[in-house]
Amino acid sequence: MTDVTNASRTQLMNLNSLNWDKDILKEFDIPASVLPKIASSAEVYGKAILGPIKDVAIAGDLGDQQAALFGQACFKPGEAKNTYGTGCFMLMNTGEKIVPSRHGLLTTLGYKIGNNPAAYALEGSIAVTGALVQWVRDNLGIIKNSSEIEPLARTVNDNGGVYFVPAFSGLYAPYWKDSARGVIAGLTRYVNKGHIARAVLEATAFQVREVLDAMEKDSGIELASLRTDGGMVQNDLLMQFQSNMLNKPVVRPVIQETTALGAAYAAGLATGFLKDTDELVANWAEDHRWNPSMEEDERALLYHFWKKAVNRTFDWAE
Q: What's the pLDDT at 190?
């Protein structure tokens, strides 16, 4: 058995019927009999039969990023979360409406609670964000620990004109260019390792801005704020710059392990331990909020040069 969100990740499930797509199965010569039954994300699938959890209900099943969306209590259309890890994954709830992407995003299942209608989502995936900090640490040796990137970046007031596009394995959303390769642009003799460190952090915020712009175009919904989770949300400099680039509040929740929390929430709803999603919304609590503090002219100029740097990465691999 699997749930609709995990089934959608196989690309074999029909988003409308929520069943395995017969035409796609035929195309790939996959017999339906080898595939699991598709269930909702929150229902009692069975009970444990052994050990200390004997008779405990197995009741919550969500894909990784959908679980984080659920844990962030993004239950209304237009609410979105972004997970900052080695890569970044942004999901926006589009409600019961399937929104085909025309701007390089993925249309996917958000969640399905019991017999209720399914909620859909738009997703934007970024390949390299936190992994870029690790690369600077391991490959360049500029820092010894990942936590040193923020203090180093704070030794300078700006990026010194440097832009780092980490297209190590191509570009993901919204470009999907596998022939792109990484570029450090804008180098002068003035630049030092503090500027490089700042450009490394800013690369994450710029990439997230590109995905959010695509989401707003696809959905027709202007995001009010962005809920964040993942390891990089402890970086205050990055989060403030993210808010500045989006020109929107960026919010970190009290409980930042939102993937595990979302799965627990789904199980709680399925077993009656939790009443409804309103209870989950009430349980969500804000830890910190960053508000934009950058003039529009400066934001537009920085983003202009970022786009210019991105263009330099295109079609490098032949």
A: 97
